[in-house]
Every structure is written in C-alpha cells, then in structure tokens.
Amino acid sequence: MYPWLLLALALPSSAALDKTHGVPPSLVSKYVPSTTGAHQTWTCLDGSKQISWSAVNDDYCDCADGSDEPGASPGGSGTSACPHNKFYCRNEGHIGGVIQSSRVNDGLCEQECCDGSDEPSGVCPNTCQEVGAEHRKEVEAERKLRKTGSKIRSTYIAYAHKEKKRLEALAIDLAKEIEVREKEVEKLRDIAERAESISAAELERKKQSPLYQSLLAHHTALKSLQKEHKKHLEREKALGDILNSLRAGYNPNYQDMAVLEAVRGWESLAGLPHINDVRKDDTETGTATEKPKTEEEEDEEEGFWNAAKIEKELDKILKADHVSLLLEHDQIIGPASTHSLLFDISAYLPDALIPSYHSFRDSIVSVLTIFGIGHGDTRDASAESNSARKALSDAEHSLKMTRDETQDANQDLLDLFDPEGFGVEGEWKKLDDLCLSKDTGEYTYEVCLFNEAKQIPNKGGSSFSLGKFSSWNKVAQPGEPEYYTRQHYTLGAKCWNGPHRSVELVLACGTENALLTVAELEKCEYQITGTTPALCRPLEDERPKDEL
Amino acid sequence: MRPSGFSGTLLLLLLLPATLAFKASDFKTCSESGFCRRGRALASRAQESGTSWNSPYSIEPSSLSLAPHQAAFTADVKSSIYPSVKFNLDVRIHEDGGVRVRMDEVDGLRKRYDQAAQWALLEEPSIHRDIRWTVGKANAKAVYGPKKDIEVVVNFNPLKVTLFQGGKEQVVLNGRGLLHMEHFRTKEVSQPEEHIEAEGQTVLQVDPAVWFEGDSQDAWWEETFSSWTDSKPKGPESLSLDITFPNHAHVYGIPQHATDLSLPSTSGPDARYTDPFRLYNADVFEYLADSPVSLYGSIPLMHAHSPQSTVAVFNALASETWIDIAHTDKKGVETHWISESGILDVFLLPGPTPEDVFAQYARLTGTAPLPAHWALAYHQCRWNYVSSDDVRGVQKRFDEEDFPVDVFWLDIEYAEDHKYFMWNKKTFPDPVEMTKDVEAIERKMVVIVDPHLKRANDYPVYKRASDLGILVKPKSGEGEYEGWCWPGSSSWIDFFHPGSWDFWTSLFKTKSIDEQWSWTESTDNVGIWNDMNEPSVFNGPEITMPKDNVHYDGWEHRDVHNINGMLFANHTYQASAARTDPPRRPFVLTRAFYAGSQRFGAMWTGDNLGTWEHMAVGIKMVLANGLGGMPFAGSDVGGFFGNPEPEMLVRWYVVGAFSPFFRAHAHIDTKRREPYLLDEPYKSIVRDILRLRYSMLPVWYTAFRETSANGMPILRPQYMMFPKDVAGFGIDDQYYIGSSGLLVKPVTEKGAKETSIYIAEDQVRLLRLLHPPRLPRLL
Predict the structure, then answer these.
(1) Secretion signal: which residues (chain A) (predicted)?
(2) Which fold has domain B24-183+197-365?
C-alpha cells in the first residue's frame, strides 16, 4: 500500500520537471534531444556518453560529469542524484543565481534562489520582485558612487600625466646640467692634479714612519671598536624594546611563569616598578615612556672615559686628519732638512677617509688653517692646492647629486605607468606616501600608502611598524582590477614569540581615501579595509555582467 | 614607488626556549600535598607491618540497628586509637542491588562535608524493601539478586565490607586496613601528656595513635605550596580508604587523565607513574599526553573488569583525591583513595555485566539528555573569530567551498574587556543580526560565558551578583574573593548559593523582564560554552581558588572544589532551557565536570597540543569519559596549541568525525586552519570526512538516544563489546559506535600507510569496515 502511495505522490512533480530546470542560460541550447532511430537521445556535455532524453533530469545520475541532472530534482528523492553539481535559479525579476546541487531540496530556501526553484514548489516563496528591486537599488547606489569616485580618479590620472611631463622636462634639464658639470669636473681635476703632484714623493717617504703606521692601525682598531659598540647599543635597545612591550602586553599572572620571570628580571635590571603594581595603582602612565634607569656607572678608573665622553669625543678622534698630524709632528720633532714643498694635504688622505671627507671638510679646513698660521712657510702652497682640491670635490659632489636626481626621476617615470607600480594609468601616483589612519580606541592604525604601516598606541608609548609596502595582490595578475584591491605591507616589527607584523590592506572604490576597519585575523597579521577613488573605474569600463 | 627594503632597525630573533610546556612546578605532587603524604605514609606503614596490621576501626555490634522495612542498617563505629571519637556507619542496599556505605563522624568538633552525593545523584535512591540483613556475631550479611548469588558481608571487627558474587570477592572496602577518617581536633591539644593523664599510665607511654597515624602531625594546620599558604582552619580531616578488586585484573574510569584506558599501576613494582592518579579539577597549561596528573574534570567512578564479571565503585567525594593503583600478582587490583575532606560515601555497583554497571550508575547520577540534532554536527571554533564580518566571512567560505558545518563559535574576545555577555561593539556592532545570519539556514552559534566576573561596577552581571551577595568569599568569610583571570581582577559567582540560581537564569532571557539587565543581544538558540570552571584562577594556588575560600553555608572551597564546575554548567543548562516555553534542548559545553555532569551537556578534553601523542590520547580520554557516564565528549580537532601539518589535521578530522562531540578549535597564536584553507588533496579529503559525519548523523543520533535511555557509552571500548575476550581488555585505540556494530580505528601515527585492527574471535560476523572514501589517497 505505502509504496504505491509514495509513487503516486512523486509522479506529478517529477513529471512536471522541465528538462532545462536548473540549466544556466548559456547552456540551455545544449539541452535539446537528438533523434537516434526511434527514440530521442541526448549526449552528456562532456561527450562521454549518449543517454535517453528521458534520462535527463530524471533524478538518476547517468553522466560522469553530472550534466544529465542539472535540476538536481527539487521534487525528487531528497538528495541530488549527481553530487558536486551546480544548480541554476532563473530568479525572474532579479538576476540568476547558482548554488551547489547539494543545497537543492534540502528543506532550506537558499538566498541565491529568490524564485524558490531550489525546493519543491510551494515550499519557498518567490521573493524575486523585492529582492530584485533591492538589488537594483544597490546597483544604482554603487553606480553613483563609482561615477563620483571615477571623477576623482580621473584627476589622479591627470596628475600622473602632469607628473610625467614634469619628470620628463626635469630629466632633460638634468641631462644638460650633467653635461655642464662633467666639463667643470674635468677642468678642476686638471688644476688640482698639477698643484698636488709636486711633493707626493716626499710625503710617501714620511708615511713610512712606524709612528704613522701605528697611528693608522690604532685608527682602524678604534673605528672597529666603535662599530661593534654601536651594534651592541642597538641590540641592547632592541632587546629593551622587546622586553618593554612584553612587560606592558603580557597577561599578568597567566600560567606561564617563564614570562613572569622574564618580566620581573627585566624590571629589576631596568629599575622599573612591577607592572602589576603600576596597573593596580591605576597610574596608567604609558610604561614605555618610563625610561629604564641608566645603569650605575661602574667606578670610573682614573682617566678613563665614561659613556657620554666616549660618544662625544670618539668621533672627534676618529675624524682627525693623520696626514696633517704627520706634518705637524715633523715640524715639532725635527727641523725639516729640506724645505718642505707645499702640498695639498687633502690629496693624500688615506683612501678609507675619502668618503667622509665631504662632511668633515669644514673642520679639517679649520684645522689646516690653524696649522697654516703656525707654519707660515708651508701655508700658501698648501692652501692653493687645497682649494683646488676642494673645488674639484665640490664639483664632483654636485655632479653625483645631479646624476642621482636624474636616476630618481627616471625611476619615477618608469614606476608611473607601470602596472606593478602606480598602475597602468598612473592613478596611484597621487596617493604615493599619503597617510591614512583609523582610531580603534586602544590604537591608531596608520598606513602611508606605498610606504609604511604603523600601530600607534593612543595612551602613549612606542609605536610599532606593521610593515613596509612590498606588493600588490599576489593572487592576481598585474593590470587586472583585482590586482589593485590589495596591498601587502610586510616585515614589520617582530612579534614576541610570533611572526613579523604584516598588513593586508583591502581596498574598494569609494569617494574618499579612508581606512574603515582593522582586524588582527591571526597573531600580528592585520587586515585593514579601506576605500579610495583610485579604484573607482569609469562606468564605461564595466563589462556587462548583470545583463547576462 | 618605494619598494620595501630592510629598514635601519636591527631585527633580532629572540631565541627563547621553544618548549613552553607543562609546568610540573605549578601543580602539587603527592609529596607536596600534606594529606596525600599522610595517606601514602599510612599505606607504607601497613605494608611494612604485613599481616600484623589491623584496622583500628570496628563496629559496636550492640549498636547495630536494622531499618524496619528496608534493607538498611546503622551502627556505631569506634576507632581503637581514638576511643572517645564517635563514628556512625549506614549501609543500604538499593532496589537495583547497588550498595551504599556511608560513614561520618558524629558529635565531632565540626561537621564533615556530606553533600557531594546530593549534587551528583539524580535523586535519593530507593532502598530495597525485600532484602533482609542477617546479623551474626561477627558480621551482618545480605544475600540477593535474581540468582541469589550476590552477597554483601559487613564484618564488625575490624570493619570490612565485601561484595561477593557467585562466592567470589568482587569489591572489598578496608580489606587492607587503610580506612582512616581523621576526626576534628583542636589545635591546642598537647600531645602525649593528655593521653597519659587520661590513661593514668607511666610517663614513657607514647601516643597510641602513632603506630597508625605516625608521629609528625604532618601539615595538619597549615600548608604552603610555592608562594601560597593554605590556612586549614579545620585542621586535619582527610579520609583514606582502600578498595580492592581481588578478582579483576583491569580497572578503568576515574576520568580525567591523559593515560591508558586500562589504568596502569601507580605503586608496586610495575608502577608506570610515581604519583597516584589525582582528581582535582585543574587548568593545566599544555598538559602531558601520558601522566596521572589531574586535569579539568573529576569523576570518582572506577570500573573493574574480568571475564567473569564487571563491577564498579562510585566514591562520592568532592575534595582533592589521590588514587593509588597496584595490580597484584593474583590478577587483582588494589586501590587506595586518599581525600582531603568529606564523609565516606561509597556506592558499590554489582554489575555483573558492563551494561548492568552502566545502568546502575545511570540510575544514580542520570544520563546524558538527547542533544539537539545540530549539536552532533560539525562545530567550527577558533580563539577568535574577531568580528561579525569575520564570522560571516568564515560562514561564506564554508558555503562556497561546500563544506558542511552547523555551528560557529565565539571565544572570549567577543566580550568587551572579557565581560561576558557584553559585546565588543567595535568588532561586533550587530551581534543579533550576525547571529541571525548564522541561524538563517538553521545553523547555530555558541558563545562563551566563563565563571569569572570582571570586578567593574559598570558590568551589570558583576554589579548585581555583588549586590546580591552571591560571590565566593575569601578565607575571612567576609566580602568578595578577588582573583586574576582573563578580565584582570575578577570575582566568582558561588553557585552553591541558592540566590545565584534565579539570578543566573534571569541573565539569559533574550527579552528583558522587569527592566533587569539580561542578554537581549542574543537569541534563544545560542549555545553556551562554559570554560575555566575548574575554576581557573591565574594567580591562585595550582591556577585555581585557594582552598580556604568560603562558599555558601560556610563550606570551604576544599570541600566542594570538584563539584564547583558542574554547578556552573548545571545552571547554564537550566538558564538556557528557561529562555523559551516550552524549552528547546539547550547546548552547553563545559571544561570542568563531575559525576552527574552528563545531565548538563558536552565536555571536551581541554587545551590539548597539536601533536600525534595528544591526538592518540584524546581518543582514550573520550573513551574514559564515556565510562565515567559522560559520553558527549571530544577533543579539539587539530590540537588547541600549535600549527598541525596537513596530514595531521586530516587524521585529526577523522578522529573528530568519529567522536561524539566534533569541534575544530585553535589557539589565538595559531595560523588559521579552517578546512577550506587546506591545499588539495587534503581539502577534498576533509570535505569527504565532514560529509561522512553528516551522512552518519542518524547513527550518532541513535547512539545518543540509547545513552539517554540506559547510560551506555556512545564510544564503546573493546572490552565492553567482548567482555570475555581477555586479550581485548587493554585495547583503547579502537572502539565501537553505540550499538551500530561500527568499529572505528583512527590512525594517529605520522606517515602511516597501514594499520591493524584487533578482532575478537567471534567478531567477524559483526564486522563492518568503515573507511572515509577518499582517505586512500593519503596512503
């Protein structure tokens, strides 16, 4: 009795099932029977099999690709005959929708199918009129937004073109300038070389003095020590910063005693109060602003320098001009056997000192001047040679500056319309280094586009770098609209026990450049969303998709 | 364009020890726990004395008083070492043949805690009306059972209770003479002199209790551990009891421990562990995968099994309890239970089959209710989905990738400043809309509510609890105990206080009543996750409350500790049910539990690690929980800590899909690992595993229906299915789902290409092999 009853119930619905039920419009034309002999047949879309036309949408999976059951039987047995299929809802009055065939006839009205075609008729109401109207309203609002945004965007593009012109003009000007400067350098080099060549040999001899050699060795040693010292200071500071943020940020009294011990150890070393006491007393002074007490100076030995003096005086010593010292030494120790020929000291600076020459030139010159005054017999020629050399290096410096400027201008020009740079139309150039920020209460997040992202505590304390700009969307191709919807900022400050901080900036079209939300989806990996007119492509660019 | 380069900052790698792991120093060993030390010392004195050792406890035969129409009697008990102290014994046989033995000190200085059973039991069991005790000179006996083969014998001197079946000893209480109920005493008592005077003997006379109690008064009045001092105002009050199963070689149960199902020895020559198994609900950070240390929950129920019979003992204690286990040469098991406080209240469950034992225990403490169908589906959790949009986004990805899922969870970060119920509106601006978006297609949300309340007057839950005076008190008994937990300075609702019950119920109403604050930003379908209810207190001794904290009616925390977590889940369950009329089946997940917790929802094995060892031991723990009557259990898929490799994650999904409670969860420091993020082929394998779980939901629902009726575990270990096959008694890496006949053997080894299953001789006709369809691709 029961099987018959069920059959009777099932028949009308499956019989009523349209062969193209659930077929997207693009494929409807494929769902027609061909006549083979006496009966109608149909070939699976993947061509794998020919089946009877009546087997299409009959709630039994015949084709390997599932193409014979596009309807997934809303009136059928309750499960889709072919798993992993897609089902198309026509949604008349709205736009078509696609759902997994597993969602067909599952007792739930899918949002994507406002016409209710995913369930047996009568189960889900047809809401396509309202949904469609709502959708059209949204589309219209979006169009308006894009229209306004794209106007702003076109000003960005105009700016890029202006920049291009400016940079091109600049490049031409710079090229001319380089030409002039190169000639100037040539001329000055000639003069300087002639002035200097006279007493080079004599100086070389003096330089063989063991005292001078020892001085050079001391210089190198001191320089190395200073470098090492600086490295250690930086390390100490970095460690201090890490420990400060650990101290401020850890969950006090949490199970991890190692963290607590580390915090306590640091507090005792740095002379800070225990952070729990600070919090309890509600003296919410930004802990990071409290400077760790500088370590007690160890008993200073007679004549030894303290840290402050080392910092101040060491550079002076390292900047001393050894050649002039050599000459001065010569003057004091013994009478010059021969009349010292005049020479330009700066020409014989050890090679290693040349790079620092420009910055210290003034002080050296003053030393030389004093020296010159004390020893009149060498003054004139030395000054002459020196000024020639000075003029040369000034000119060389200016030439280098101009060349650098040219290189920058050319690089900027290259980036300007580079799909991987400021976009094919250069629309992003205007936003280069534009800083946007979002206050989330505890922190303000700042992103300077194409530069750096930062997390700034609102209650004071040091801010953290969240990373520097490294790339656009990595999963899209340069030039695609999708490519410009994401920016990656990477290698920010390292998290304690975690990765380097990084930011994924997700952008959408909007009339303003603004950050909307900040979320730390994983430890120290931030997702920031925002809007920018740069993404509001003109409406004409729209590929018709809704009109499908 | 400024391509990124290294900035001038020197980036340093902090080379910290990579093994942030279990801190043994955070938790007591037996030797650091005064009463456990005393208990073990007592046992070793007994062992040294050998056969000359006799229990000082005896029944006064003249005091024995039979109940007129019931199988019950009471009698006075005396201790030869303290003749002036009075104890009372109460023995009854229940209608189903279970035996209850109670002993308490009477007319003492104080009262021992006697309410543990009251919280655990469904109702006071009825006493058998037909069975009669036969009182002789040396003992009282009762014979009963359908075959008249069950016999209970209570020996008078020394006091000993033995349950026989078919003439064989099943369970013996105080057979080894380790029973000791430390009576209440006053601290001033000056020692030997008093006894000397009383007994009028020579000055050289020593304390007559020394042979039994020792002479050290070890940790009677105060005890320190690490930086904490337990003030012990009541002094020594511990309870020691030996329970022996002379004819059963395997004992199971006493969850929760990360160990084998068939419990290994903790004393004697074959001891695997040096410490006894401990029951003291504790939030153990990165617990070990093979250890007797206490974990989040405690069920003092032990099964003993042999080919001839299965019996069980429920020792209704709520205080810290240590259990030594020794397998004897004669194929029996000796156990020694040492508890800090409470009366003796032991239930002997005579079996004789595993099914009988489960039915007998279910009659005492109840069964797990049939959960809502969705609760058996797949749960997706993470600490934390950080915003409404995050939740919506994760749901969208599941749909796009066609992964079945039914429940999305929110961990503590939804709550502003960890004030539970209070949404962080910056990240969850539209909680009700978000919840409804999830519920739109009958999915559900589960939201965490922990028992610690931030001490902030702008937090209505704390404010009202404070006004009502229902917060746990510090040792002074005045004011509010303040401890440190997620929100910082916190207090705890005392769920032993009857005034807290209506209050808690009122909070969950989704429509405000009488303008009282209630969780209107919620829906009637939201499930509740009760975490940290051991209770976890970050700055407390052993990460929990000081034992001298004071609860309702003046009981110390030490008296009620192991029950505390159950009460929280109990009232959350009731509050959830009371949201609607008629009630919908609530869903509550708890981390702490006790005997009876099965009535209030599901549990999980807490903060496990993403290691193969933890994956494997998680299965054993879920099995042990089933034996403890708490079948709705699972472990976090993927492991709470760490980033599991894809192979491990896939294997863990299989473990989860074949667990009663199936939830993926992850620590806040881990990478996202929702299954759609996996690469192929893993992604499709997990999708198939999820689908397999869904296609098997009727099997699970049926198994839950069974347990709700008869208390049988949902995951049934080998010995239950083949109770006479000795070789299967120790097997705990394969199991059967309900009475479906489905045998499950999850693979928990890295790189495994094959595994073997154990088949009992007569099993082949029953065998169904179930294999997730795409798993071979991993092989």
Answers:
(1) 1-16
(2) Immunoglobulin-like (2.60.40)
